[in-house]
Amino acid sequence: MNYTESLTRYTANFIDELAGNGMTDVVISPGSRSTPLALTFREHPSIKDWIVIDERSAGFFALGLAKKTNRPVALVCTSGTAAANYYPAIVEAFYSRVPLLVLTADRPHELRQVGAPQAIEQIKMYGDYVKWFHEMAVPEATPQMLGYARRKAAQAFAYTEQANKGPVQVNFPFREPLAPDFTLPDIWNTEADTKRTDMNRIEGVKHLAEEQVEEIADLFHSSQKGLLVCGPEMNGDFAASVCQLAQSWNIPILADPLSQLRTGGHEKSHVIEAYDAFLRDAEIRAQLQPDYIIRFGAMPVSKAYLFFVKEHLSIPQFVVEADAGFRDPTGNDTAYIYTDPKYLCEQLIAKAPDEQRGGTWLQEWQNDNQTAKYHLLAGVEEQVTEGEVVRGIADVIPDDTTLYVGNSMAVRDVDSFFMASSKRISILCNRGANGIDGVISSAVGATAAGERVTLLIGDLSFFHDMNGLLAAKQYQLPITIVLVNNNGGGIFSFLPQANDKKHFEPIFGTPADLPFEKAGELYGAAYTVVSTEQALKTQLQHSYQQEGLSIIEVKTDRDENTRWHRDKWDRIITEIKEGWQ
Known about the structure:
Layout: H1 3-21, E1 25-28, H2 35-43, E2 48-51, H3 55-69, E3 73-77, H4 81-84, H5 87-96, E4 100-106, E5 133-135, H6 143-161, E6 167-173, H7 210-221, E7 226-230, H8 238-249, E8 253-255, E9 271-272, H9 275-278, H10 282-287, E10 292-296, H11 303-310, E11 317-321, E12 334-338, H12 341-349, H13 359-377, H14 386-396, E13 401-405, H15 409-417, E14 425-429, H16 439-447, E15 453-458, H17 459-464, H18 469-475, E16 479-485, H19 504-509, H20 517-522, E17 526-530, H21 533-543, E18 549-555, H22 558-578
Parallel strand pairs: 1-2, 1-3, 3-4, 4-6, 5-6, 7-8, 7-10, 8-9, 10-11, 11-12, 13-14, 13-15, 15-16, 16-18, 17-18
Helix pairs in contact: 1-2, 1-6, 3-5, 3-16, 8-12, 13-22, 14-15, 14-21
């Protein structure tokens, strides 16, 4: 058997095993050394390939696709710095627990550390940001080595999903010639007895013993002022269970916009979504001191909530994690509960009291929430504000679609202005490392899952990832981008740095003064500019009737935006405090 046949069969068995384990999508960054992987993936009948030229964009495209589907997505690149360009997306995947299988092609061992081109150190190059690393053997096609290829494929796939999901790297040293021979018979090994690996996985879920559940239920029974909190979460099935838990115990539940609790058909009477606005005030935070806090998912976006928790150090706080991890930046004495969150909710619902209790505590949160919502949703400005942009999107975004949100001001405005709705909307954001890079690519990748996406993004994030628009153009993916252009880093206007008039603009404001309509023209987008909330709604509705890429630019003023937000917050806080008299 010659080397080309060995290369073909070895690579084909690895990829076919991935398909057998459930791999449905691969994102390929073109290159030479990765030829065996790229071509064989494209030949496989049950795996969809996406070609994304820029590796950094490709990494985030795969991240968005995996985040939306909650399934592992493969990434393929050539050797050298191509693999290094995946790094930001891998970091984000690690912290946001998104399953990525990174397959890096490499020079064979004899061409390493001898000055060969495109040969860098790829062994464990992503360090602790991958859950598992394996360097594959040089291809051979003996039955033993084909079985080895399948076992490693099954292992790699399993590691992306086990415990906390996340990225895995498998490194492939390939010798030349690199082109597989697809004229060979039965390259997928369908006629052999070793068609599939014997690595079957039977995995259960963690759950608490009855006496442990009783301890938590006793805490609920002994207190009238409990508080549930739900942070970023991609599992929409959990929403109905935790909302039912809040209702059965008559407890308020603070719902982060990324928790998937604010949207959908589940009951939301106990959902508090405007808490960021009124928890900005220290006196209100003190007034709303709970007896305990139970948090599901990651830390919420709201910095006001962070202050709220830090100021109540003596309050028992519990963080529920499905498998493992320590996600609590407050420094509080936090207890961790490792169990399936949905199952825990069902166990606690079964122990709820027959009579409703805690009505005054719940009513206080609901009243403050209604006051905040009234002011946040009130008024229409002549020149659209960034908060009104979110209100407009929330009004007209259609069912069964996704809202992808950029970091910095975009996600904070969604937190403030996207209220509870019965619409079936997923709200996603890259909140693992909270970076502004790769946001367009992530949203376009989410669109590749088959559902229309609306992306809300600021001008600096847009500038960082304009390359991500190419995949939208190339595949005619249905995505509407709402580009909020305040000519710089709007979030810094709310921070103390804004008082430094000498250095603020060049270091923090960072105006780019870019005509973004040129980017729309370059990538074939339908491009419009709007100046009112109603015009935005009209253009959004129009874009939802079109295929392909649409960009709606909204120009705002950073200083005016800051004043508008602060006026809203002041009105809310004043009215709540007046109600104490």
